[in-house]
């Protein structure tokens, strides 16, 4: 019994581990700089982190099933470009003398749909053809980037409507719109993971896929759903980025998958699946954001920033492993 | 007969090469070997016989340095030895050839044979030519006409086995232990293997030969040693015994649980299997051959079979885990049903408590509650989406109480519980689904005696409530303690269907060994 109690305590402790780390980090930066502990800077950090939060939330769902999605950066770029392209040019089929224009909502939904489809395809190759997630999504990383280049002909799609710019640059109730979007995404993912059957199945598959199979869970369906969600959330990230820059860049989102994975890992989600949470990932993403922001405020060279970020990832995992061993 | 340390056995006037003296080995409280004594003679094939769980594998693992923690003494060539690794055992001259061969598939025969003791030249570079030549000589000794540079993956199982033997010869093993060597090879390969074994015996090697196939023991073995309940019950010359005598000696394990013969005959048909066949993964061979059986409401049917008889495979097939490889008809309560996945089986009311609870039954890193509720989440959804956690906790508590699961709370992590309690959680998760047919595969594997008797009681009680229960087990006493009727599988065929009143250990074992 004694071991049981300590184990439960340990669990609760590890749940707050990243929160404590964030807290300590914030206090340190508040002491070291004048500008850090201001509402303006706080919102700034959140606004800059919003895109990573969206992507990393989807990544968390995938990682919880013991998978990984390396394609999110490219999916972000392709979906951003498609949304921008549809908004600006619509679909014109000259041979049929047909033109379809898109409202902002239509273009945004189309972008998200394409993201979900690309994710669905990831899930399809992973489950039906048993391609390891690393390889399947690595292939998608290249494919989606290629399609982005093809669609944009390698040129940015710029000068979108001013209304569209609200998504990335607007404010509502004193908070930037991207932060609202990220918050909604997080709440949705928390709801899915904590309150629904799908959430349970995600944890069950990551914890023990064989046992999940023996429990009659449709593993294919759950995994495909999860990859599709990750794709859709990457698309939302892409739409925010495109809107903020008022331009879809063909090379947008390069390396974003690594920041997302870093947030997931720092947040305490195990890459072998079954253990972790969306809240942890949000903490992870904010820690990365605060770190970036703080290092800039401290005038640390950007080269050193990378070294620090990498070190933090390593430390997070080492601390996590040490906790596991004690259990 | 040459080593100075050898000493003659007074009874046979023959030297003994390997002696086990009072070996006891326990696994977390369960005794696998109980003060066992036995002797292996050089220049002979020593057959080691025993029912499943008699202790054969455990003993062989001690001889070969896999299990290093045991009580008692092992004497090799007159010297007491205690191996701390397989490498040490190998260096001392004991080699084991496992049922699952231990070869690296994408390396060549030569590379496998010299793995770990490669030959190098003066500059430390691999001396491939010399290794290849030595391999060639070894293969010649085994009549294996294959190039030493052939990759293992392109060899047949029988040939791979010979490579294992070549490996043993290469390290100049005195004692070669073979664990069920003929279980996966063709008749022709068997006779070749026997020729080679005879040759090894002539070279005064000691062979320890584990097999269930009594017929082949009469062909190849010189001596027999019978294990039961972790003890040696008898040993002697093969030529002085008979098939039936051996079976008599193997059975008669302590009956810890009295059988219940008060059962009345059940008449309500529940589950019917007709001509169930299952092919192996390559589709070439049948693992199950046309199996038909009936299960009645309130009945417990025990399925007994030796290793590889197809017990687990039969359960898995009924549960929809092999939809592409299996054929046959399944009907439930008189209605024909199609089972193409576990979900189909579960929806029809057929559930499986699998053989390996940690691997197939539980998510041990999670707590008790989600492990129990995983099968009934549909019923816990409110407004079609949100899980009702309160109801979930209530249901978990109900089953914790009903099955007397010893856990601190519903939120205790499963891996912190004992094996018996874990097994009860797997049972709970399926009982929560309110099934009609309960398939139990090795329901008491690796759990202590008290938990065992609790699970037996539970099985009886569930049957009394009208469930149809199938228990597959490799333990004869278990089968006899809980079954109303015993079915026997042998190499994928149903060989007997015996009401409990007429069932005896010897009769069951005979049908499990003999294929008619």
Shape of chain B: globular
End-to-end separation of chain A in angstroms reads 14 Å
CATH-defined architecture of chain A: Orthogonal Bundle
Strand order of the largest sheet of chain A: 1-2
Structural class of chain B: alpha/beta
List the quaternary state of the chains. Answer: heterodimer
Q: How many whole angstroms does the radius of gyration of chain A measure?
A: 20 Å
Give the C-alpha Rg of chain B. Answer: 26 Å
Low-confidence stretches of chain B: 1-13
What general outline of chain A do the C-alpha atoms trace? globular
- Total number of strands of chain A: 6
In total, the number of domains of chain B comes to: 4
- Count of DSSP H/I helices of chain A: 13
How would you sum up the major sheet of chain A? 2 strands, antiparallel
Count of distinct strands of chain B = 24
Please state roughly what percent of the residues of chain B sit in beta strands, choosing from under 5%, 5-15%, 15-25%, 25-35%, 35-45% or over 45%: 25-35%
How many structurally independent domains of chain A? 1
Average of per-residue pLDDT values of chain A: 89
Please state the average pLDDT score of chain B.
86
CATH homologous group name of the largest domain in chain B: P-loop containing nucleotide triphosphate hydrolases
Keywords for this entry:
heterodimer; A: 327 residues; mainly alpha; ABC transporter involved in vitamin B12 uptake, BtuC; 13 helices; 6 strands; B: 516 residues; alpha/beta; six-stranded mixed β-sheet; 18 helices; globular
Describe this structure in words.
- The complex is a heterodimer of chains A (327) and B (516).
- The relative contact order of chain A is 0.20.
- Chain A has 13 helices and six strands.
- By secondary structure, chain A is mainly alpha-helical.
- Chain A has a two-stranded antiparallel sheet. Chain A has a two-stranded antiparallel sheet with strand order 3-6.
- Chain A has helices at residues 2-32, 39-64, 72-89, 104-128, 133-152, 162-169, 177-195, 197-207, 209-214, 219-245, 256-266, 278-297, 302-326, and strands at 91-93, 98-100, 157-158, 171-172, 175-176, 247-248.
- The longest helix of chain A has 31 residues, at 2-32.
- By secondary structure, chain B is of the alpha/beta class.
- Chain B has four domains: 1-93 and 174-250, P-loop containing nucleotide triphosphate hydrolases (Rossmann fold); 105-172, no CATH class; 255-349 and 435-516, Rossmann fold (3-Layer(aba) Sandwich), CATH 3.40.50; 357-434, no CATH class.
- In chain B, 32% of the residues lie in helices and 27% in strands.
- Chain B is built from 18 helices and 24 strands.
- Chain B has a six-stranded mixed sheet, with helices on both faces.
- Chain B is globular, with a radius of gyration of 26 Å.
- The A-B interface holds A 1, 3-5, 7-8, 11, 195-197, 200-201, 203-204, 207-208, 210-218, 274-275 and B 319, 321, 341-343, 345-347, 352, 354, 359-366, 370, 373-375, 377-378, 381, 385-387, 407-408, 411-413, 416, 429.
């Amino acid at each position: 019994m004694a071991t049981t109690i300590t184990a439960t305590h340990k669990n609760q402790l590890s749940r707050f581990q990243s929160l404590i780390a964030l807290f300590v980090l914030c206090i340190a930066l508040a002491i070291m700089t004048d500008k850090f502990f201001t509402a303006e800077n706080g919102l700034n950090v959140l606004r800059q982190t919003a895109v990573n939060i969206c992507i990393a939330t989807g990544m968390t769902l995938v990682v919880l099933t013991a998978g990984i999605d390396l394609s999110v950066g490219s999916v972000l770029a392709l979906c951003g470009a498609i949304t921008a392209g549809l908004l600006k040019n619509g679909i014109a089929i000259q041979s049929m003398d047909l033109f379809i224009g898109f409202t902002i909502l239509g273009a945004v939904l189309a972008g998200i749909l394409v993201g979900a489809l690309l994710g669905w395809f990831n899930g399809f190759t992973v489950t039906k053809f048993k391609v390891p997630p690393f390889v399947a999504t690595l292939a998608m990383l290249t494919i989606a980037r290629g399609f982005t280049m093809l669609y944009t002909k390698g040129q940015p799609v710029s000068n979108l409507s001013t209304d569209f710019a609200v998504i990335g640059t607007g404010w509502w109730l004193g908070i930037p719109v991207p932060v609202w979007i990220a918050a909604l995404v997080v709440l949705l993912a928390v709801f899915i993971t904590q309150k629904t059957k799908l959430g349970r199945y995600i944890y069950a598959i990551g914890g023990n896929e064989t046992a999940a199979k023996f429990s009659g869970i449709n593993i294919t369906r759950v995994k495909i759903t999860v990859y599709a969600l990750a794709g859709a959330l990457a698309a939302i990230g892409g739409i925010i980025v495109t809107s903020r820059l008022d331009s879809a860049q063909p090379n947008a989102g390069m390396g974003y998958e690594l920041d997302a994975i870093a947030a997931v890992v720092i947040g305490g989600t195990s890459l072998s699946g079954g253990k972790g949470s969306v809240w942890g990932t949000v903490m992870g993403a904010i820690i990365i954001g605060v770190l970036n922001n703080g290092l800039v405020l401290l005038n640390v060279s950007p080269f050193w920033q990378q070294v620090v970020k990498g070190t933090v990832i390593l430390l997070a995992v080492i601390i996590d492993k040490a906790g596991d061993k004690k259990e | 007969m040459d080593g100075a340390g050898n000493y003659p056995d007074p009874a046979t006037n023959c030297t003994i090469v390997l002696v086990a003296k009072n070996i006891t080995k326990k696994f977390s409280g369960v005794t696998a070997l109980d003060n066992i004594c036995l002797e292996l003679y050089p220049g002979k094939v020593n057959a080691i016989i025993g029912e499943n769980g008699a202790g054969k594998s455990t003993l062989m693992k001690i001889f070969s340095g896999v299990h290093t923690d045991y009580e008692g003494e092992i004497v090799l060539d007159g010297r007491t030895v205690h191996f701390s690794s397989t490498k040490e055992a190998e260096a001392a001259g004991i080699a084991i050839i496992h049922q699952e061969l231990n070869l690296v598939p994408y390396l060549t025969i030569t590379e496998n044979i010299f793995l770990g003791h490669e030959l190098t030249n003066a500059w430390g570079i691999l001396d491939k030519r010399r290794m290849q030549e030595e391999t060639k000589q070894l293969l010649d000794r085994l009549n294996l006409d294959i190039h030493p540079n052939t990759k293992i993956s392109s060899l047949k199982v029988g040939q791979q086995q010979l490579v294992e033997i070549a490996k043993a010869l290469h390290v100049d093993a005195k004692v070669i232990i073979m664990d069920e060597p003929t279980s996966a090879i063709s008749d022709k390969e068997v006779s070749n293997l026997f020729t080679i074994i005879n040759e090894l015996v002539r070279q005064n090697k000691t062979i320890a030969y584990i097999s269930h196939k009594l017929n082949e023991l009469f062909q190849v073995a010189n001596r027999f040693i019978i294990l039961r309940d972790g003890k040696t019950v008898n040993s002697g010359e093969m030529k002085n015994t008979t098939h039936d005598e051996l079976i008599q000696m193997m059975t008669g394990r302590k009956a810890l649980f009295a059988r219940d013969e008060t059962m009345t005959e059940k008449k309500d048909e529940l589950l019917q299997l007709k001509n169930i066949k299952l092919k192996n993964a390559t589709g070439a061979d049948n693992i199950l051959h046309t199996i038909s059986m009936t299960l009645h409401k309130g009945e417990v049917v025990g399925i007994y079979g030796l290793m590889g008889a197809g017990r687990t495979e039969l359960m898995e097939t009924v549960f929809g885990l092999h939809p592409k490889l299996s054929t046959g008809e399944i009907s439930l309560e008189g209605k024909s049903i199609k089972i193409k996945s576990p979900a189909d089986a579960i929806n029809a009311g057929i559930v499986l408590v699998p053989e390996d609870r940690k691997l197939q039954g539980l998510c041990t890193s999670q707590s008790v509650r989600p492990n129990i509720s995983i099968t009934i989440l549909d019923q816990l959804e409110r407004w079609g989406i949100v899980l009702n956690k309160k109801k979930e906790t209530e249901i978990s508590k109900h089953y914790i109480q009903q099955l007397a699961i010893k856990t601190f709370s519903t939120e205790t992590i499963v891996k912190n519980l004992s094996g018996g309690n874990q097994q009860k959680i797997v049972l709970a998760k399926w009982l929560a689904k309110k099934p009609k047919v309960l398939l139990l595969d090795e329901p008491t594997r690796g759990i202590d005696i008290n938990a065992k008797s609790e699970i037996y009681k539970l099985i009886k009680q569930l049957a009394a409530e009208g469930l149809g229960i199938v228990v597959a087990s490799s333990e004869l006493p278990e089968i006899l303690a809980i079954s109303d009727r015993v079915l026997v599988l042998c190499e994928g065929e149903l060989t007997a269907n015996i009401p409990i009143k007429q069932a005896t250990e010897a009769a069951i074992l005979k049908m499990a060994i003999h294929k008619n």
